[in-house]
Design brief:
heterodimer, A: mainly alpha, two-stranded antiparallel ribbon, 11 helices, B: alpha+beta, outer membrane lipoprotein receptor (LolB), chain A, 3 domains, twelve-stranded mixed β-sheet, six-stranded antiparallel β-sheet, 29% strand, transmembrane (chain A), transmembrane helix (chain A), ABC transporter permease subunit (chain A), ABC-type transporter activity (chain A)
Amino acid sequence: MSIVDTPVPVAPAAPARATARLLRSELRLVFGRVRNLVLLAGLAAVPLLIGTVLFVTQSTPVAGQGPPFLDRVTGNGVFLVFAALVSCLPFLLPLCVAIVSGDAIAGEASTGTLRYLLVVPVPRTRLLLAKAVAALAFAGAAVVAIAVVGLAAGAAYFGVGDVVLLSGDTIPLAAGMLRTLGVVGYVIASLTGLVAVGLFLSTLTEVPVAAMASTVVVAIVSGVLDALPQLSAIHPGLLTHHWLDFGEFLRLEVDASTLLAGLAVQGAWVAIFGALAWSRFTTADVSS
Amino acid sequence: MAPTGTVRVPSDVVLSLVSGTLGHSGPMDTTRSLSPRVRWAVPAVAAGAVAAAFLVPAAVGAVASDDLPAVTADELVDRVANAEKVPVSGTVVYTARLGLPDVTVSELQGAGPLDLLGGSTTMRVWSDGEDASRAALLGDVSEYSVVRSGPEAWTYSSADDEAVHYVVDPADLERYEALADEAAEPSVEGDVPTPSEAADLALAQARIYTDITTTDPVEVAGRSAYQVELRPQTDGTLVDRIRVAVDAETSVVLRTQVWSVQDTEDPALEVGFTDVSFDAPDPSVFDFSPPAGAEVREVEVPLPEPGTMEKPGSEALGEDAGFAVSGTGWETVVEVSDVDVEEILGATAEGRLPEGSTGSSGADDLLEEFTDAEEGELPGIPELDTQALYDQLTTPVDGGRLLTSALLSVLVTDDGRVLAGAVPPATLEELAG
């Protein structure tokens, strides 16, 4: 966690140190929790599971069926990363984000520790930011875990080689790795909107489970709305609509405007729900 | 961890203000000066700013540029017809509101030509302005590509990892070289439309039976464009009007919109650039070779006989057995007789089993062996139950099955005739007798 040791340059001595300490303790809180580590391990097991299943069934009639990229995995282990990400995006990754971000404020409130936390001479705004960064760091760790385990398992089971793009063109493995890095970065960035939503919901309640559940519901409802063609007018603004745009990294020419459109939508959700969370958290009377 | 010491007093003041007024918190926090009402105004402002950021560019983009020199409609049609071919690349959005039953399968099967039956589809296109072009139909994490380069063409579908290689029949190759004209490029099953192809079709009809006018210049894909409007003079057709936007500088067609008489608000068919560049694309774009491990099919396409190169006119093919044209202009109905629909569907359904019936490459190869003979003639819709699709798209009527859409009606009679035209279904049933 090198981010913890980075000094905050502008802030005066005491608040800077306090903020760094706060961030470090938030990260320790999130990553030190057994529940969260089990979650991380579970997510990392997804590519391992998919890889094992594909390895065992690769010469049977059911090989080559399933979600996107699955049929490519046996030819090139790199695709296990994409197949695992596609499998985790609709539910498991939102769940993971929801558990951490939904717990951020409501969890402290329910155990009665929020009151003591607020005694620390750090503004609530900064406390909220530290919570957000910690939740996002966990979401990022989950995506990276899926990617790393996926790549390792894919390489071990099927080997890696030149990457065939969606357009049918073949690019060298090194370029393919670079694009994989882009995919991982984009998927992490795609989760920022949900982190903001989860954080806001977490400021509304003292029951962490309620915040977690409603965050998952937001992600799922967004996915359901995205599947209704009658609502195509609002689709581009939906939280989950651009999640699968990471496929852009696997096209012949990566079109930055497509990716930026997806990131802009996430930015919009972060702006609105971040502001809502801030308003709520800085005006709320914390009594427990 | 140590402070850098570069903190200037003003920012210090600001910071203490921020921490003091905005954020300093806790039970001992008594210096809050922002009222809760002001704090709650922040999300509203954020929402407003977000809305503005997303909506304003769209509104600005819609403003027409009217500083173009005026041209007449006829001049404009001429310009399009005689435009010098230039390299074009960009993003094309195709939207169909044809009123067909929803058969979108891209979520399950990946992007493919069937997506074009309804809804909105995004494509990337590249053209070198001569005989090489590429179009990619984009789906969520899938893609369907059509790559043309001179006498050969490839289609590739990422969903089933299948490549089809179309080449001009070797017997015709010499003649192809002599023609060296894009009119002679091999026809590809499941081709994807471009704005200019759609416009060509309309403009071919333009001079007769049609009122041609120009509208105010428009802006398409950030370029100033002239726009020509075509209105059929008859009301016996499903087409209400067609608008073609033509780039003012290069005379490339940037957008084609077709309205149906059923809905004069939203175009039933719209295909246009949302992003366009006239720089020559990298030649490697047109250089396709199928990926290792992909299933490759070879198809030889015979060149059409000289003389039938033009679009079938009513006289040219009138006497041809099994092929008849009635009506003129926009009311033209094409009738093909002695079509065994059942056989076509049956063969297709058998030949290309839906995905899932075989998964192993061994079984697939075996299937290929048995169905190879018809392969070339089959519709290029891979791995879909064609019979089910046919049943879904058509409705039973007296003496046959009818496909109705906003712009086209097709009647398949029980005695093996197929009638099609941009006319109301009643016209077809009347003709069929």
